[in-house]
Predict the structure.
Amino acid sequence: MKQRAVPYILAAPAVILLMTFGIFPILVAAVVSFTDLDVVGLADMSKVAFVGFDNYANLFHDPDFWKALANTGLFVVFGVPAIVICSLGVALALNSSNGRFMKVLRSFYFVPAITGIVAISLVWGYLYNAQFGLFNWILTSLGADPLPWLSDPALAKFSVALVAIWRGTGLNIIIFLAALQGIPQEYREAAAIDGAGRWRTTVSIVIPLLRFALFFVTVTTMIAWLQFFDEPFVLTDGGPLGATTSASIFLYKHGIRLNQFGYASAGSLILLAVIAAVTVLQLRVKGKDDDV
Amino acid sequence: MKHLTRLVTGVLSASLTFGMAACSASTPSTSTDNSLTFWIMGDSGANFQKLTEPFTKETGIAVNVTAIPWDSVDERLTTAVASGKGPDLLQIGLTKLRQFADAGALMKLDNELGSYPGLAASNFADAVAGQATAVGGSIVSIPWVADTRILYYRSDILGEAGITKPPATWEQLRKDAKTLADRGAGQYGYYIPQWDSTLPVGMTWSHGGDIVGPKGTIDFDSAGFNKMVDVYTGLYADGSVPLNADFDQAQGFVSGMAPMLISGPYLSKMIRDAAPELDGKWNVAMIPAGTQSSTSVFLGSSLGIWATTKQKDNALKLANFLSDPATQLKWYEIQGEIPTVKAALNDSTFTSDPMVKLYAQQLASSKVIPMVPNWDHGTGEELLNALNSIALNGADRGTALADLYKKTADTSAK
């Protein structure tokens, strides 16, 4: 009896935390999404009414919601490959030598991941500033025209994504480096004996052996992009004119600023469903061809 | 990127607490008998503590000041309403008054003010006194500090361009701005803050329009509003204003890139601090007139008393102290915020500075933004989105405005 209880006791803290801060809020949000809860209702519960699927129907007809989803989709499509390729590239380069310089470089690449978003937004805000920013100073010094980094709808998407990519690579580089160091030296030696060059070894031996790390990084990066929030929030507040409003920014604006808790909850459940669907799909695709 | 979880947990804790609050009726306010909790917006907490020292000395009531950043006002309101744990007294921006009142956070003061002559509506600037800022017919706040918009101009740069006096009308401003923008590449005549949703409202009033219809709901569609759109989008079409959203107005004014702009009195201090060498090369003027008047927006803050406070009398005493002309002048001296009490506005220490006198003059012809449920992130944002989409993205004017009218129709403004 005692023996049987041990695994449950060990798992209990994690399960309780997950239930309290993961599952339960989702259930509450699910309930709230069928009501018209706002700040008035918060103070006086009798003013809260169940509205059925109205919130979902309204979201479906809200062009701003679709725009936010489309923006999020765009960020995922370009952002995920960008982060994966950049991190993998940097990790491979860093792994090529064990010298002191490379070790210093490793911490250098990790710095963005541990720097506070507020500091990042201040620094990048100044870099991007159209009036006195460094980027425009460089451009004008080279004789080019200054660019409206955060003011042009298309360019602003690129600008906020660039900061997110810069910030997102740090942790993933560490994951790739750990995986790279787990590859037995014998494989490389065997490849070398067979006459494989550096490039061939990387493509045919190293990258396939990184498959699990690649999968992990892709899944977590994709979820992070689907929840993309920090960078547009601090740099553009979703602007100009909604160009950088991701699904999460849309939810924040409706839930926190406009106090439309019901509406925002409905939106957050849709986003949750999208994230779950995408992740399950990835697991399926991986499950089929994986036997490493 | 954990904000989604945070949002969900926020909603969770909110709904949890409202469930619990229903069981335990009302949760007591945090303050004990001889101290008041005051929420002040922005970074003026230390100065406010200083301001209330005489009050504490006289009455023995301590004042605990909590400074709330302007950006997180909405979040704090939500959590305070949900938990029932608010302050006793708080500062509320005028454009947020309705939101707080709707949430049931503010005590109705109609029957409370009688015993405090210092709090009578007749003491305060007419634009914000009594019914002018009532929500649903009830007085829920006491005016505190005033803010308005005035025209700043660089007299030296205007002079070099042959402009001898600041533009008195929007038509003239548009012409002058064009002249100034022609100084060269990267030079502009005027600056429009793309985030200021109150400016177009003032311009609409100046052109004889209003944004509230006869039914007491928001109705932008008027001749005056359309004239404002002409000027607003015209300034962009002329190439007279910078296009980038992150344009820094103080920097632009000091460097001369944007030698005219409309801003609040706080900019005066910024310019003096940033560029003392420009003294005498810039000045302020009443905002340009439209076809009807030179009407500006009356911004600023009021004092509210938290609906469930147990310290109503002490809170009113503090409000009374803060509405004293001497206290209001003291606050202007240490924090630079303009009084709302008429006696203070007319005081010689206040009117002796010609620049400051102009603020008072402009305030006299200013009106408050209508009390809509959510101006800053609701109606005002829709207005800016429509205007900026025409001016910056080249959206079709007819479609953008029709969309704005449709989105904001039926927004109650009482």
Notes: Chain B touches chain A through 49 residues (CB under 8 Å). Strands of chain B lie at 35-41, 62-68, 89-93, 142-147, 150-154, 260-263, 282-285, 296-305, 338-339, 366-368. Residues 197 and 380 of chain B are 5 Å apart (CA to CA).
